[in-house]
């Protein structure tokens, strides 16, 4: 396993494995025994960067979420896990009532929610300090200064280590970071966005984003990463939720002329290396010049084994150049 530093301040930065593990469906769709087996194997292989959220997985049972954090809390206790494992969680997108969602009824990013939801997450996880806490989605109803100060207070109190942000427009991320920097407060250092080798159309509106998707890492985000060495991209859904293995799962926004040449390049490199397409994607993301950490889910130890080997796969400069150039 290889490692990468997230964050910059000596007191909060962490060395994390270049493959992060998504625990989104642990404790709901993935049963406890399987989830524990995946977590144990991930740690045994040197993995130390696990991702969850206060709202996972509310859509499975129509509740408000929390099953994933609770399962991780039970796993931590039963294994005696301490500081060596970095558990990232998120707040802001928990539905305020059962039967609703983050689209129509999110908790949002007020100072009160930040304080109270972080406290609940610490309880469910059984930790004194959240290693990395993300704003899960934007909240345009709250002044950004309030959100920035709300997160900074928790860092100052020592109940949160690093701050991150997910699914927000880049201008909002930059504005929040500028507010924090001007006030001498800690700002977002980890960006969590959807990113894989295949690229979606970004102009397709949905319920959350009427002007087109903000959840995908597009050119603005990649340029921002290049310009700001303090930032890391944690790439969610790197395996397109299984679509490289099950092409019928490929979402409609990937149906465009750029997809076949990218897929062809992936298959060519997979043939050359003897690896699977999933492994080539993870190797391409984690071994490139930009600081990208793929955050893969999985519902079995066998899938995890494949993904672990992907993070260890070394691509040649020529293979990488062909993967980069395909469009
Ligand atoms: N910030 C956000 O808004 C956001 C959004 C989504 C996800 N996330 C985070 O990102 C993590 C990963 O997201 P994801 O589950 O959408 O992404 P993913 O890693 O692209 O997809 C995971 C799914 O792909 C399939 N899979 C995984 N490894 C495989 C393998 N080696 N071979 C074949 N199929 C494989 C499995 O599907 P089957 O189980 O059907 O076999 C698995 O459940 C989540 O757990 C969560 O922590 C964050």
Automatic annotation (TrEMBL):
Q: One Pfam family of this protein, by short name?
A: Aldo_ket_red
Q: Which InterPro entries match?
A: AKR_Detox_Biosynth, NAD(P)_OxRdtase_dom_sf, NADP_OxRdtase_dom
| NADP-dependent oxidoreductase domain span | 19-326
PANTHER family from the xrefs? Answer: NADH-SPECIFIC METHYLGLYOXAL REDUCTASE-RELATED (PTHR43364), OXIDOREDUCTASE-RELATED (PTHR43364:SF6)
This protein's name: Aldo/keto reductase
Per the UniProt record, the source organism is Streptomyces cylindrosporus
